[in-house]
TrEMBL record, chain A:
Signal peptide segment: none
A molecular-function term among this protein's GO annotations: sigma factor activity
One GO-annotated biological process of the protein: DNA-templated transcription initiation
Protein name, as recorded: RNA polymerase sigma factor
Domain RNA polymerase sigma factor 70 region 4 type, residue spans: 141-194
UniProtKB/TrEMBL annotation, chain B:
Upper taxonomic lineage: Bacteria, Bacillati, Actinomycetota, Actinomycetes, Micromonosporales
Topology relative to the membrane: Single-pass membrane protein
Organism this protein belongs to: Actinoplanes philippinensis
Protein name: Regulator of SigK
GO molecular function ontology, one term from the record: sigma factor antagonist activity
Annotated Anti-sigma K factor RskA C-terminal domain residues: 104-246
Length: 204, 254
């Protein structure tokens, strides 16, 4: 895998080149909450590739991903005043909305029955690497990846099957052939271990 | 990989927190969990913190959207009315640093591991006998834990248990108190318990013992900043007046 890194960082600010440094999502979202459309444009440029990328990763279908990403970004505009900075970062709040919307779409389609076959065939043998080709290589990504490797196999699978592929925990249990309570605890343990790995200063 | 000492899985709603944060719950479970979060500050902190982790996972899924998406979104927002802020904002501790947040969540994890029903496991305390006063003590203790972990000068140190697991000690001079968070991989053999000690000038004082079968605890220790070490031993149940066993962990507070 290509070793690129910090040098590439400014690239994710495209398509609008900004003379400034990376804007702060929290400050922008605060302005958006007060109706600042210009700030929204800048926030869009900052987060849209990740929102779209995440939604696409879960849904796979680019057309659907575009539709859902649009819903998500409009929702960010609409509900910006509901973001509580004390409870978490702006990006975490935005990606939470994005992920939930994407998963809701998966579920409603599963309920409609037309997605099951596609998902069933694609899910188990889609490794993390496959989609990696289309994502920007960033330092963070390498770190996330490194930290995913720190998890046990079941923890890693439980987290990634749910997060990147939108499976419910009973589906994950089915796919991994492990009991439901084990899946629940592996998801939680996996996230906690990821947190400890991603924020090393906590392990003082 | 499941260890032979795989702990009993808990059925309490809190165990769904990972699945909740990963959006792996169905609507009914999700709603139940939302209710759970409304009633439990510490759990909400843990959830918020785990959402930060999933945000990092989202960082990895970067993909260039079609250029028309920007135009479509900007066109739509110019016709979309924004929601007003939620009216009664929940009062929040102003000095809650990110570090404090992480620690509170760590404590929440321990609390949840300590288990079923009781918010904070109260180490054996003869003053607290009946269920009601225990519950009140647990609540008071939870508030104390939060005030210590949220202190601006909180310092955290941790060590591995030789028997497997971790002990984390957070201490605040401003609060003149500390919190010992013990999470062992499993409880000691029958008849044995984890016991916590504070050590000053080489002299150990018991900071409480866990119950038999218990593998996690959150313990507030008043005056902890004056101590030099926190030690953990495995003693004969219910507890020992002096440490008799070799140290399972020793955390240096200096």
């Amino acid at each position: 895998m290509a070793e690129r890194g910090v040098g590439d960082r400014p690239e994710y600010l495209t398509p609008v080149p900004s003379p400034e440094t990376v804007p702060d999502a929290g400050l922008l979202l605060g302005s958006v909450a007060r109706g600042d459309e210009k700030a929204f444009g800048r926030l869009y440029d900052l987060v849209a590739p990740r929102v779209y990328g995440l939604v696409r990763r879960v849904l796979r279908d680019p057309a659907q991903a575009e539709e859902v990403a649009q819903e998500v970004l409009v929702e960010v505009w609409r509900t910006a005043a509901r973001w509580d900075p004390d409870r978490g970062s702006a990006t975490a709040w935005i990606f939470m909305i994005a992920h939930r919307r994407a998963v809701d779409r998966v579920r409603s389609e599963q309920a409609a029955g037309d997605r099951v076959a596609r998902v069933g065939a694609a899910s188990v043998d889609t490794p993390y690497d496959e989609v990696a080709d289309e994502v920007a290589v960033r330092l963070e990504r390498q770190q996330v990846r490194h930290c995913l490797d720190v998890l046990t196999e079941v923890q890693r699978q439980a987290v990634t099957l749910a997060f990147y592929q939108g499976h419910s925990y009973p589906q994950v249990s089915e796919l991994l052939r492990v009991p439901l309570p084990t899946v629940k605890s592996r998801m939680r343990d996996g996230l906690i271990r990821l947190r400890d790995c991603l924020t090393p200063e906590v392990a003082a | 990989m499941s260890a032979p000492h795989e702990k009993r899985e808990r059925n309490d709603v809190h165990s769904l927190i990972g699945a909740y944060v990963l959006d792996a719950l169905d609507d009914i479970d999700r709603a139940a969990f939302d209710r759970h979060l409304r009633d439990c500050d510490v759990c909400r902190l843990e959830a918020d913190e785990l959402f930060e982790v999933t945000a990092r996972l989202a960082d990895g899924a970067w993909s260039v959207p079609p250029p028309r998406l920007r135009d479509n979104v900007l066109a739509e927002i110019s016709n979309t009315r924004q929601l007003p802020p939620a009216v009664p904002p929940r009062p929040r501790a102003q000095d809650r640093s990110r570090r404090g947040l992480r620690l509170v969540a760590a404590a929440a994890a321990v609390v949840a591991a300590a288990g079923a029903g009781v918010a904070v496991y109260q180490v054996q305390d003869s003053r607290v006998r009946d269920a009601q006063s225990r519950l009140e003590a647990a609540r008071a203790s939870e508030a104390r834990v939060r005030s210590i972990l949220g202190a601006p000068d909180v310092q955290t140190r941790s060590g591995e248990l030789r028997s497997g697991g971790r002990v984390t000690v957070s201490s605040s001079r401003l609060q003149n108190a500390g919190v010992i968070m013990l999470t062992a991989d499993s409880a000691p053999a029958a008849g044995r318990v984890y016991q916590m000690w504070t050590i000053q000038s080489g002299a150990p004082t018991s900071a409480g013992a866990l119950r038999e079968g218990q593998s996690a605890a959150v313990q507030v220790v008043e005056g902890l900043p004056a101590m030099s070490n926190v030690g953990i031993t495995i003693e004969r149940a219910p507890e020992s007046p002096q440490p008799t066993a070799p140290l399972d962990a020793l955390v240096d507070l200096a």
